[in-house]
Amino acid sequence: MNVRISATLAMIIGLAVPMFQSSAIAEPTASSAMVIGKTTGSLSAVAKANLISKLKAAKLREKQERKSGPQNSARIAEYDKRIYTINVLITKIGDNEDVALSEVDQALSLAHTP
Description:
Blueprint: H1 2-16, H2 23-26, H3 30-36, H4 45-68, H5 73-94, H6 101-110
Helix pairs in contact: 4-5, 5-6
């Protein structure tokens, strides 16, 4: 129950923080323009579908790993965080939003491999 409350509070705080940033911080810089160049927007529909299937497979592995090990709250919270991150990426890619490929690579590398 406490994990659920903590996760909810973290999401609320995480969503509220961007609202208070100044516009100077939100403007893209020259260094962030390089990262923007490698996004899912440059992928074909087939490549996006393959990427989503990889993310779904990683999410399934994370869920299985979460159930199979020791059930302490810190471990479960870490798995929940990874699963949430993967779900966000799946949703963004499915909605044709641009996602940096480095974010996808990071999420896939954090997910445990079989």
